[in-house]
Design a protein that fits this description.
The chain is an alpha/beta fold. It has a domain of 212 residues: NAD(P)-binding Rossmann-like Domain (Rossmann fold), CATH 3.40.50.720. Helix content is 39%, strand content 15%. The chain has eleven helices and 13 strands. The chain has a seven-stranded parallel sheet, with helices on both faces. A two-stranded parallel ribbon has the order 7-10. Helix 1 packs across helix 8, helix 5 runs parallel beside helix 6 and helix 9 crosses helix 11. The mean pLDDT is 94.
Length: 318
Amino acid sequence: MTQKTALICGVGGQDGGYLAKFLLEKGYTVWGSSRDAQGASFNNLKLLGIDSQVKTITIQPEDFKSVFIGLKKSSPDEVYYLAGQSSVGLSFELPAETIQSSVIGTLNMLEACKLLDKPARFYHAGSSESFGNTHGVAATEKTPFIPQSPYALAKASAFWLVNNYRDAYGIFACTGILFNHESPLRPRRFVTQKIIQGAKRIKAGSTEKLILGNLDISRDWGWAPEYVEAMWLMLQQQKAEDYIIATGETHSLQEFVETAFNKLGLNWRDHVEQSAEFMRPTELMVSTANATKAKDLLGWSAKTKLHQVIENMLSQDC
């Protein structure tokens, strides 16, 4: 079989790193883009021991010329668009940047794929945040989007762009609607990593208080290294479709906190405080998923559930 080439936009992030590792193990030639490849540290690739195996390239997703040149140079069989501002909380502070990086970036990628002489299959990283609050009803691929943050709005808009280009131009393009997925590579601005690192410092003797926002929110938390396999599987199908990727289990943030502290022999109530500073203007309270389609059509299902996810993060198992 001819060796395939993949381009991962946003290779320096959590998912980009694990996806690069996964594809290299599959025998792919892997290109990875960053907004400044020469200046980027690519620490996650170094942590995974693959930095020397990934060909890096500079691509500015909001600049069509940059995107087109990058795709021409890498000549990929598969394009994975994982770039863009990825924090829900930060999107309230940087709404324009969030929307531009997700929507304009996706548009430019799709347009470039349309114009390439060599057809490339396109994966777009969607988000469960697009659904908004489903009031405890498990979301399926047919559940309407009701975004409640600039981040969710951006991801929902990019989702419809992917659908339009697939229908209008026959491009093999799909969206993975991923629910929350964690790992030791998760940036520390994310609440899960904030909890893990705070609990470890307290266990080591720190007298700090871990300050969090709303502990009543509930999410479906999975293990990121498993989720990148689902991304790849989507591009191996005969027909391009969109899929929800999730564990199918929902847990509260309080349970996440309690579990993390318990595993370190600590009572979380002695060390955690809540503050309005970390409350969002609008909050998705309960996020619940039905990932049956991925199981039935991709043969994929999550193996790692919440308690093991937390255990893995505490042990820094990349």
